[in-house]
Amino acid sequence: MERSGQGFDRILESCILESKPRPAFAGTDDYQVWLTLGGEVQDPRFLRFLEAVGHEQVRSFDTDHLLVLDLAYRQQSIPADLRPSIPTLVEAGILERAGRRVIPSQRLMVTLGEKGRYTRIKGLQRPAQRGLILQHIRESREGAQFEDLHQVLPGQPEWAIKTLLKTLKAEGLIVPHGRTRATRWFPAPNSNRDPKSD
């Protein structure tokens, strides 16, 4: 293992480029490094996505760029320390901005024959998210907890879901029972119709 950490970067990059699970270091302590590498391909579509980007271009990216590509393709939130890599990928036409998120570009998704998936990802903006959250709360007889709502919108960061809840509460559509993460959300009385959904 090199002191500079380049060895780990190479392992991580290989895992991403082959769509295999990230390396796991469970069991590592002060005296030994225990590395587990998974051999199964997680998503063959991601491999096709990288092929559509082009091998030469992919080889020019560093580890952070590859991590952002992987997270954006899987519709997962991108940590703050990786966000400086986003503009390069957007300028290259590989990713595009969709509100506060970044998603695979329409050009690449159409090339892959995934135009429908692009439309679904692109279309899952605030009005759709709002509708899904409100529907789930209305259908939850015992009240919806935050963990439930995070499952409804798995690609969204916690702050985005909390903002939606705050907005729906201010509009008189939902009410909280309880405090902190134990809060359960219920439809407000006489709130069967959402005017924003008309």
Question: Could you describe the 3D structure shown?
Answer:
This protein is mainly α and 198 residues long. It has two domains: 6-123, Arc Repressor Mutant, subunit A; 126-197, Arc Repressor Mutant, subunit A (Orthogonal Bundle), CATH 1.10.10.10. The protein is 47% helix and 9% strand. The chain contains ten helices and five strands, in the order αααααββαααβααββ. The protein has helices at residues 6-17, 44-53, 55-59, 63-73, 86-91, 106-111, 115-123, 126-139, 146-152, 158-170, and strands at residues 95-98, 101-104, 144-145, 174-177, 184-187. The protein has a three-stranded antiparallel sheet. A hairpin with a 2-residue loop joins strand 1 and strand 2. Helix 1 (6-17) runs parallel beside helix 4.
Low-confidence stretches: none
Residue share in helix: 40-55%
SSE class:
mainly alpha
Q: So what's the CATH class of the largest domain?
A: Mainly Alpha
Label the overall shape.
globular
Biggest sheet details: 3 strands, antiparallel
CATH topology heading of the largest domain = Arc Repressor Mutant, subunit A
Task: Describe the strand arrangement of the main beta sheet, using strand numbers.
Answer: 3-5-4
Strand content: 5-15%
Instruction: Summarize the helix and strand pattern as letters.
Output: HHHHHEEHHHEHHEE
| Total number of domains | 2
* CATH architectural group of the largest domain: Orthogonal Bundle
Radius of gyration, rounded?
A: 20 Å
Question: How many individual β-strands?
Answer: 5
Number of DSSP helical runs: 10
